[in-house]
Amino acid sequence: MDAGRCKQLYGNKWYAGCAAPAPGIEGQIAEVAMNPRAEGVWRWVSPTTLRFYPKTSLSPKTRYQLSLASLPMSDRIKVAKEVSYTTQPQAVRIARETLWIDPSKKGAHAISVPLRFIWPVNKAAMQKRIHLEPVSKSSGLTLSEPTFVWNETADEVVVSANILSLPKRNAEAQIRVDGVPRFSWQDGERAIEGSAKGAAPKAVSRMAVTGTDSLMNVTSMKIESAYSDSLAREYVLEVKTTLLVKPQEVLNNLDLLILPLKAEEKGSRATRWSVMPAIAAKDLERAQKITGELLQPGEELTTVTRIKVPVPAGRGLLAAMKPSLTSDSGLRLNRVRRFILDVPQDRPELNFLQPGHVLPLSAQQSVDIHTLGLTRVKWRLEKVKAPFLALLAQNTTFEDQYSELDTMSTASEGVIDLPKQKSGEPLFTSLPLAKMAQTAGPVHGVMRLTVSGFKGEEQQVQSSKIILVTDLGLIAKTAADGAMTVFTEKLSTGTGASGVQVQVLGANGTPVCESRSDAQGRADLPSLFGLDREKRPVAVVAVQGDDIAWLPLVDGARTVDYSGFATGGLHAS
User: Fold this and answer.
1) Between 20 and 30 A from 237 (CA), which of 31, 160, 253, 349?
2) Taking Cα atoms as reference points, which of 367, 325, 319 lies closest to residue 342?
């Protein structure tokens, strides 16, 4: 704010006068004259900023004269009535190239390079200026004539060429755009490169092309934790190659060594070999050689080979691929490829084995858990009281395991000591719900089971699961007019459940409507449209004797996506 100018214009009321709103209203169209004329719209993007939205592209290297005389400006604002703007000349940005390696014996390799121009171009004329070629014709690298894929506005193109022949050694290719300088982004602005004095502008970029001696390569090896068929922990080595190979060929050429636990035999802690600068010969003498086992057919060509390795947790593994590894196309590695890997630590685990969240009454009322590396588990069973089922539907879902249930449930808890297991060996434990809930008969209703795993005195893991124990299955369908039809079924027999009381609970827990199921298990309810606030429908509850089923209406995971079924393009008649 120019205080002196404001005082001169407004006198003693200068501050209020200069605090008046700025001229522009965001989104409003402004009247600005341009010479030469350009089709488009000027709009306020902030109270003090105008932006031009051209209908067609502006012309490169052109000086535009702008007249702001028609803008409604307050006396407090001092702005030039005439301003000018000169557009940048045409230039091109050459993005990073992609070398496409065909892993099969066909060897249909290619190069692609994206180009971005500042201004739209004449496609046919520009294609004559673009050259994708070997840097040296004597290198043995030959490329096809380039192909061009343009965007709709003709300011971006991907230039591609097939590789017709590869030399033994790596070679260089280049893309060249004659008559157009190159630009790059610097501090958010386009910076156009200059050309030598007297030389015509051109944009050039070189790229390396891998020769046949280096085309066959092991790009990566990594080791990860996995489960065996018995859910024991095992470790899997994944080997990736650039070309197709037989997994058996990979295994035959792979040397595996378990490195010593400590670099110094009298050292106080285990060595992390992957960060060591080198491995001495004496360390390799103390290493243990092992053999892996393929986890896929040995003769099926692939670029990813998975091998089970018998290695202890937390150790270092040296994996070396011999240069005799040969691809399906006959190309070999040109040198030994060595990788030093850290085997993951033996971390404790606790998992629920039952899928889903419904436990039928007809089944044995127990929950099975799978543990690794734990000495005991502590469990807590929270059974939600019936008056709080509406509140539960609003605050939690079957997938949400961590909501606060203390105020709406009765709870019991206990501890189970586990037998000692070998490292990585699984243990399966059954948790009987009736005994845990301290009831004589079967357990019904919604409950949350939380199990914490301990190793010694320290808690290592925790897992929770919302469980609905019932013999009633529920499906609720809402029609276009808001009417709801609920289908109830006996899970033990698979037949419709008759005489079931079906209620729709409002947000305050009071039923907003109810019905009883007929002989086919169908219960029809009136339209739920227009119900809001305390009457907003949040859950469907079905009750038959002591049995109860609960379906939250706000849980998106319970909604069936009809578009997800493979209908083959057919519609219902």
Assistant:
1) 349
2) 319
pLDDT reading at 573 higher than 60: no
| Residue 557 Cα distances to 394, 475, 524, angstroms | 14, 14, 23
94-102 long-range Cβ contacts below 8 angstroms, 24+ apart: 94/175, 94/177, 94/182, 94/203, 94/205, 97/175, 97/205, 97/207, 99/207, 99/209, 99/210, 101/210, 101/215, 101/242, 101/243
pLDDT digits (tens, 9 = 90+) for 424-465: 899 999 988 878 877 656 678 888 899 999 999 999 999 998
Distance, CA of 79 to CA of 49 (rounded, Å):
12
Q: Which pLDDT score, from 0 to 100, does residue 462 have?
A: 92
pLDDT of residue 8: 76
Question: What is the distance between the alpha carbons of residues 511 and 552, in angstroms, rounded to a whole number?
Answer: 14
| CB 548, CB 443: distance < 8 Å | no
Q: Which CATH class is domain 218-267+282-342?
A: mainly beta
CATH topology of domain 92-214: Immunoglobulin-like (2.60.40)
User: What average pLDDT score do residues 19-36 get?
Assistant: 79
Domain with CATH 2.60.40.1220 in the chain: 218-267+282-342
Give the pLDDT of residue 132: 96
Decide if pLDDT at 35 tops 80: yes
Architecture of domain 349-466: Sandwich (2.60)
HSE at residue 217, side-chain half, CA atoms within 13 A, is 10
Most distant CA pair in the chain, distance = 99
What is the pLDDT confidence band of residue 546, given thresholds at 50, 70 and 90?
confident
The CATH code that applies to domain 472-562 is: 2.60.40
What's the pLDDT score for residue 560? 73
> Is there a contact between 453 and 443 (Cβ–Cβ < 8 Å)?
no
Say whether 373 sits in a helix, a strand or coil.
coil
How far, in Å, CA of 372 to CA of 221, rounded?
Answer: 26
- In whole angstroms, what is the distance from residue 423 CA to residue 373 CA? 7
Show the tokens assigned to 18: 């200069």
